[in-house]
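This section describes the prediction task in plain terms. A model, or a person checking by hand, is given the sequence of a single protein chain and must write out its three-dimensional structure as a string of tokens. No templates, partner chains or ligands are provided. The sample shown here is typical of the held-out split.
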Amino acid sequence: MKQSAKAMVFGSFVADSLALGVHWIYDTGKIDGSFGRISELLAPGEGSYHPGKSRGGFTHYGDQALHLLNHLQRHGGVFELEAYGQDWQKFMTGYQGYRDRASKATLLNLDSGKSASECGSPSTDLGGAARIAPLVYAYRKNPQALAEVVKAQTALTHNSPSALAGARFLADSCLAVLAGASPREAFEQALAGGVADPQLAARIVSALGEEQGSVRQKVGEFGQACGIGSALPGAVYAIVSSPDSLEEALIETVMAGGESAARGMVVGMVLGAHLGMASIPERWLRGLSAGAEIAAALDALP
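The expected answer:
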């Protein structure tokens, strides 16, 4: 299981890095015309939300996921909310990358004296849940504890019922895949276990029921935006459309535009866990600026 769990984490990071060059470009025609088929890691272009980033770097989602991984390494694989909240506050106060609304609101709340358990914004974006691969890795042998720390980590910045429900669904799905289920089986098991947001559950069921159509088409129908009600079903569809090819699923996810980074991190997590390290193109792994740092952190965790 440990090797599959490592692939889950690396799959999440390569997905974010692959999306970096075109993140939040909603016009798919512009992606086609300016970039072609994105099969390589790219630096963000002029006008990007991520200026100053280089090829192989991360969006703010990947940067926060890396910060979480390093925090877990420093604390022996243990996540304690107040300690992490203080660490996150320091990190984001000096952060030079993009700060989304959820991060800004959370920082304001922390700076005003609110605790880590009450500082979260009401954001419904997928970004909060998309960061959880390091937590699933660290707590993969303790599902009950994992559910609690995933909820706490997500609520730190995205404290809305739909974001928390989506995070739990994703964690449960990853655990099921690590235990040997196919992605579709894992999603069905997680749905059977209950999703606290009925509307989100219905949209995931819809994504699983689709049998034809490109990822770009279906992401367009669900919505390219950041909200978990749009982004998570789009990621689910990309996964079940290419369950045997992480590379194809991630490229199609990025080519669908919009919130490609958070969607991609979900796709990379699940298919990495399912298909293992051999499924992640070596050129992507070599291109990750933080690849050695990620590997060292994972090796240091039990």
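For orientation: The first helix runs from residue 2 to 20.
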